[in-house]
User: What shape does this take?
Amino acid sequence: MPDDRDVEDLLRSALERDVRTGAVDESALTTGTRTRIRRLHRRRRVTWAVATLAALAAVPLTVQALPDGAVRTRPAASATATEPEPTAATADPTASTPTATPRGTPATAPGVPMTPLPAAPLPATPLPTTAPADPDAVAYDVPDLPGLVAALPAGQVLLLDLGQYAKNPTVSGQACGGSEIEPPQIAGRQWGYAEEDSNRLDQTSVDVVVTGWAPGTGPGAFGHLVANDSRTCGFSDDLTRRTVDVPGADETWAARWQTDGTPVTAGAARAGDLVVGVTVSNPGPEGDADVARVLTAAVADLRGSGLAATGS
Amino acid sequence: MWDLESLVAWKGPQLVRLARALLRDPHQAEDVVQDVLATCVLKWSRIESVDDPSAYLNRMVVNAVTSLRRRPWRREQVSDPADLPDLAVPDAADEHAERRRCLALLRRLPDRQRVTLVLRLYEGMPDEEIADLLDCSTVTVRSNAHRGLATLRRLIAEEGTDRA
Assistant: This one.
């Protein structure tokens, strides 16, 4: 019969040689994590909206398309409960403490190599003629939009980058159901900005969605937004239609509405088969101008990327 | 803010392997780690302020696993056969099979014994830190480790007897 030391050695060997070297599907891990981020993001928004009702203050409730196409408002299992209390960084000037980095430039943890990401807009990518078979695959990556970032209202900080994903609402604020997106959405990316990373109810926040549509279907997708008749995503609030001037855009759309008392102003612009939607919650007095400026910058970014070549 | 793909490339596989070792059902590992990574992405501004983000994420996984199991622990019976996983224990025909068998038997251990052994042997965590994570004393940690090894010894011996 083995003694404790033998068992400990065997177990240590098993953990080192069989567990520590086990294969992990990073792609599936990324996809699953992205799904949870959406749930957490939505829960945060739902929390804000509930608090808004109580306080008669303001933060919007946005429902987004889920990977499985369902709309869920039930909070996901609490992941925040797993957070340990952080230990504050020491004052040791030699201590290596990662810092927040702009999108596309990941922080480097001590001693751990990071995979560099493209920092510049991606080159023009030939568009496929059909939607990808993998429901979570994208036909191309939506690049960073530096002009858009520069055009945001002053003081906005990035809170969320949902990465490359092809099941997005056209404009943040739409509620999405479980139907297949039609026409096929083949690329997309969402960002969330706010004045600070907190649940402060009266801050201005900006949500940006870029969606890429199958070649030649961009106008149709934009038409669904304008008519608010998409069977996949649409607005449930009463919209007050506006106009917005976006140089370089093929088409534009704008509206105002209120979500649980929160004023929202939004706009969208089409550049070929790409559509960018900008939603500003708790806009300041220059809210309409903010939307126009951000959309104009985004369209310029997208035109510059070469991705908007078709559908004009 | 981290790009998700970079975060996954940096820590994802390591965290999944840790969770696989900690959990009785290794198939839950990906779920636990996805929760942790999602929280990390959304709360990076907080996590970046800690001394060692890598260790912090490890601890988040341990917390997630122990939270998952906390309630069952309070009513757990050490030898409750209904609580044992339906896992095939491979024959120890060679060294690799022996290690796999050991891991399968590890998963039969009561949660606190298993988690304690994994944190000690896989993470190299000191008893004080394990005690802090599991909300118990260092004496209890040592006791769980000792009892875990003793149980493993017994299970290994029983497996040997069964095969003979």
Q: What stands out?
A: The helical segments of chain B are 4-22, 29-42, 44-47, 53-75, 95-106, 111-121, 127-134, 138-163. Confidence is low (pLDDT under 50) at residues 69-87 of chain B.
